[in-house]
Design a protein that fits this description.
50% strand; mainly beta; 0% helix; single chain; 119 residues; four-stranded antiparallel beta sheet; seven-stranded mixed beta sheet
């Protein structure tokens, strides 16, 4: 069982930056691939970025490539999402999630944190 708690959301102007954090409970954090997802009002949830258990492999949605960076600190049981050059279309609730196997379904989800980008 993994419990995930996101933080760091808020209101930012277009072109600005935010860093989201996701703290995981338990001693097996390094056993999970992690991902960040987002869901805007009236839209389906979409994957934003993923990171492997070691942190060596990352993957991004085309919409955020070059602007967002996912990273993790296994010693702190935390995964991060650094968001730069933000756009109004980045406005959404952001969720972190954990998967035992890279590329498989995500089994554990956080409660989400709101990110709003004003124009």
């Amino acid at each position: 069982q993994v419990q995930l708690v996101e933080s760091g959301g808020g209101l930012v102007q277009a072109g600005g930056s935010l860093r989201l954090s996701c703290a995981a409970s338990g001693r097996t954090f390094s056993s999970y691939s992690m991902g960040w997802f987002r869901q805007a009002p009236g839209k389906e949830r979409e994957r934003v970025a993923s990171i492997s258990r070691s942190g060596i492999t990352t993957d991004y949605a085309d919409s955020v490539k070059g602007r967002f960076t996912i990273s993790r600190d296994n010693a702190k049981n935390t995964v991060y999402l650094q968001m730069n050059s933000m756009k109004p279309e980045d406005t959404a609730v952001y969720y972190c999630a954990a998967a035992r196997i890279w590329g498989s379904g995500y089994e554990y989800w956080g409660q989400g944190t709101q990110v709003t980008v004003s124009s």
